[in-house]
Amino acid sequence: TKIIILPGDGIGPEVTREAVACLDLLSDHFDLGFRFEEHPFGGAAIDACGDPLPESTLKACRNADAIFLGAVGGPKWDRAEKRPEAGLLGLRSALGLFANLRPARVIEGLEDLSPLKAKVAAGADVLVVRELTGGLYFGARTDEGEVATDLCTYSREEVERIAHVAFREAGRRGGKVTSVDKANVLATSKLWRRVVEDVAAQYPDVALDHMYVDAAAMALVAAPGRFDVILTENLFGDILSDQLSVIGGSIGLLGSASRGEDGPMMFEPIHGSAPDIAGLDIANPAGAIASAAMLLELGLGLPEQAAMLNNALEQVLVDGVRTADLGGDARCSGFGAQVRERLE
Amino acid sequence: TKIIILPGDGIGPEVTREAVACLDLLSDHFDLGFRFEEHPFGGAAIDACGDPLPESTLKACRNADAIFLGAVGGPKWDRAEKRPEAGLLGLRSALGLFANLRPARVIEGLEDLSPLKAKVAAGADVLVVRELTGGLYFGARTDEGEVATDLCTYSREEVERIAHVAFREAGRRGGKVTSVDKANVLATSKLWRRVVEDVAAQYPDVALDHMYVDAAAMALVAAPGRFDVILTENLFGDILSDQLSVIGGSIGLLGSASRGEDGPMMFEPIHGSAPDIAGLDIANPAGAIASAAMLLELGLGLPEQAAMLNNALEQVLVDGVRTADLGGDARCSGFGAQVRERLE
Ligand SMILES: CC(C)[C@H](C(=O)O)[C@@H](O)C(=O)O
Ligand SMILES: CC(C)[C@H](C(=O)O)[C@@H](O)C(=O)O
């Protein structure tokens, strides 16, 4: 089983190290035969070979069983001709990873970590299903110095396939999809809403409602418990999933999975590269470890090992081990070691 | 002094009634000579004359000293050829109202209303300066059934003029502008960032930082106290200002002002038309009354009367009068009457 590792930039390498060590431990113990292969990606790849997504990295990803990504980006490359983010968008697009799954919840017993009042946060458990290869992210752009444009495009087919993912996920969870758009203004949102309605007809057991993105942003703070699955387009998904991520206490806790029609899936923490704390061994590896658990379950079909890793991770948090983002002084490496201790 | 009143749809008319009654009381008492002129707008205007922004309404607005708007929209017109929202966008555009000011804060003593923990919410006081006549809202659209597109456009000039508004406001407040964009992906955001940097050079006393919109959505929940003025483009401003609005307890509490280079300004609560509770006399008129206070201060240059109205409004809230959105059973009309009682 070949797992491609893209540590990337900033805190990417250090959180990746902890996650991979967890996977390695499980592989050893259960004789799963994981082989890890590290490749340059993002800003690190720009520095190494002038390209955020080198051909060799892309080729390795295509032939992988699963891909693990740390984080990309940083001010160092702000003025670069090709930015690290272009590598990430290029990889998502090249592998056809159109569906991005971003779960967030408030862990029982950890309500104190949330910026929300306990009664608002309690029980919140939301999955954002974000379209990942369309919309404003991939439309034509122009920048003539004095005027710039970005084009947002969606086709029926693009909306259909992501809607199916959301309805299927909802069927396995709370049975409810909230589709988020701005159909009172945007043409792409009107198409989005029409197509989502059509797809919904094929899932009579899943309830569907629609919300405008501004109202959704509000409801995610005021009443996150009302949501089960949020289905939305690329940019809205970027914003709402980040916003949602803090309800559990820190964006540092959350993992994500990206999938295409077939081919390898990609897993990454949803936090960024946090260049200001890179290399200090104070980043929170929980999001990376949660991503590793998703890799086990969704990427490799190993739900049992995934549950073990998730339990060990949750235990460490419940036991009060806290990295700096949660006001503690646990180290990134120390946190990872604690997870592995509980795994053993 | 001619004030054009556009009650609009849903709860628009009932909250407008309370706000206008407050203005009327002040006009009587201080002999300000306000004349109110009501005009059809939004869905109500579609029903009355087939057009959400009738020519006569637009003409009246052009000749006004200030414009007050209730709310527009509702499912009733979801399938209409021209939607109520088109009237709002048309009016903003026709009057050149490019700057939308949306203040939100946690009122001292009312921290219990916020979904955020008291220590997170305490002292938060943010002004969103939203560009209102550009971006995805006003670019070309196509919808050919199977594929739809929306174009996002910004010019240097459009960014410059809204940036000046933000820096001037920051100079009168906390002295800090946070410009929000998605410059790691969008061409319009790269232009936005360049131009904002250029304008910032003219305001050496105001600090500037930049945030990506996803990070900003997160920080507005986790640490709203870190912001003073948020400067952002049309769609991001729509999302972030709605999200921000709940930190004080309810979107129903907040007013907004929209201005152009010259000409009359427009004032409206930032909540929507809430068709589900329209006509029940349970809507919160506080946002409309706060908008009326902004009308007095910014639209008519009457800061003293504005302060009186704001104080009366705050007093009613501090005294514990709560409409349904805040868990109480005060009526819309009753809340308005209480504000006027304290004004007398
Ligand atoms: C780094 C950036 C391009 C990316 C995105 O906007 O998709 C990130 O914010 C994310 O959410 O994965
Ligand atoms: C009604 C709608 C078109 C409008 C907008 O998106 O601008 C509203 O949400 C607002 O924020 O004023």
From TrEMBL, chains A, B:
Binds 1 Mg(2+) or Mn(2+) ion per subunit. NAD(+) binds at G272, S273, A274, P275, D276, I277, A278, G279, L280, D281, I282, A283, N284. The gene is leuB. Residues 2-339 form the Isopropylmalate dehydrogenase-like domain. GO terms for cellular component: cytosol. Pfam families: Iso_dh. The record marks Y137, K182 as: Important for catalysis. GO terms for biological process: L-leucine biosynthetic process. It comes from the Bacteria. This is 3-isopropylmalate dehydrogenase. Its main location: cytoplasm. Its EC number is 1.1.1.85. PANTHER family: 3-ISOPROPYLMALATE DEHYDROGENASE. Pathway: Amino-acid biosynthesis; L-leucine biosynthesis; L-leucine from 3-methyl-2-oxobutanoate: step 3/4. It is found in: Cytoplasm. Homodimer. InterPro entries: IsoCit/isopropylmalate_DH_CS, IsoPropMal-DH-like_dom, Isopropylmalate_DH. It comes from Sphingomonas parva. Its cofactor is Mn(2+); Mg(2+). Belongs to the isocitrate and isopropylmalate dehydrogenases family. LeuB type 1 subfamily.
